Amino acid sequence: MEFFFDAGWVLLATFRDILPILGLIISFQLFVLRQPIPHLRRLVVGGIFVVAGLALFLIGLEMALFPVGRAMATQLSDPAFLWGDAATPTADWTAYGWVYLFAALIGFSTTIAEPSLLAVALKAGEVSSGVISPWGLRVTVAVGVAAGIALGTFRIVTGTPLHLYILGGYIVVVLQTFTTPRKMIPLAYDSGGVTTSTVTVPLVAALGLGLSESVPGRNPAMDGFGLIAFASLFPIITVMGYAQLTYWLARRRQTKPLKGDSA
Amino acid sequence: MNDRPQTSLLSGLLPVISKKLWSSFKDLMPIILVIAFFQGLVLRQPLPDFFNVLTGGVLVVLGLMLFVEGLEMGLFPIGETMAQALARKGSLFWLLAFAFLLGFSTTVAEPALIAVSAEAADIAAEAELISPSAQSIKQYALGLRLSVAVSVGIAILVGVLRILRGWPVHYLIIGGYVMVILMTLIAPREIIGIAYDAGGVTTSTVTVPLVAALGVGLASIIKGRSPLLDGFGLIAFASLLPMIFVMGYGLIVF
After folding, report:
1. What gap in Å lies between CA B70 and CA B55, rounded to an integer?
2. Does A165 touch chain B if contact means CB atoms closer than 8 Å?
3. Residue B235 is nearest to which of A53, A106, A194, comparing CB atoms?
4. How much is the ipTM here?
């Protein structure tokens, strides 16, 4: 009974969230462009799908993604798991290897499977006229996300300030911007944004919050967030690095066509 | 297409489920595999509330599938034709107004942002940064979402101006970085984590396709702009501004 009551509330709130898009499209179509709305029936049916889908997603998220992220963080940083029974919890960063590995694997696997990244990678192949291979780009972005999230969990365990890492990342990005082929720059910047999908974001956020709750001396309000920031900054660095490397290799191969092996 | 709404809803639903369910499930596969690997081989213990998690997982897949399908049926095609119609109309004011409102309204509907801002509000209440009443938690979460939505709106507006004027994207990005660093110096420490995350959260299911359509549509209509070069870059800027605005929100609230 309570479940249906909650579901009703979620549905209402969802409808409110969709309202701005509907209002925008209807008012611009009728008052600015002064045309009737094409395929009105499809818009209505699509709108019902959107509201129902979003409500289901939000209910499922509370039941699955958040609890799983927190449970994994708690179990992987549990002293009984790390050192056997009767161990005292510690904030020593070397103890949390499994957490880093889990974070990196979640980052890598979800990014490799991300459909919007595939689309961007294919376009990148076109822009660079074949110098950048779509598969290579996807692996590069995935490695960037994996390294980013793993470093983010390391930051949570050690409790070091988030802005120092991000500042360092920005400096690297700016330096790389001046040496990367110009055509690749907008694409590299965007690759940071497209990697963090709707399913990955809540899971990773819950992982960070759970970790900050279970590592002694950390608290969720100060240390729990920031993983997603890492996941969207690091791919920019790895993609620009990849572009620099492939262009450099391509140029070297042109000037002196020697050994066939390229690292 | 010309049958009644109810039957078209039903006949639209069945092929949707059969076709899209598998692809949604495939997107979730890597997460399931990694978690199964850790639970089975590393931790050797089951997830707590396994049944609940399973039900929730099914709801997530179903919900996301319906959501994306609904967007592709109705909103995306209309959004794309409208962006092109507005670009052809040639009125700078309406084009910029559309850009802002598009960024704002799609961000308000972004599922990941709804989820993360609710979580951030709970954390802030637990840490006694805001009063723990349900009312103030809701207000804080809504405030976060609205400041992100306004900033994405402004980012899309500036992004459209960039395409019209042909500014290089890295000036905007580097300028944004400088702003982020300056805001970090004065923002309260508790907001920095969620502010930095807000950048990555905003750009997913709803915003990216519509904004990309707007950018590529504009760049292909205006002479001397390449859709591939000038169309990209909007998303990057749309994930920078929210960081600045959420830190500003933190300055006001805390």
Report:
1. 22
2. no
3. A194
4. 0.80
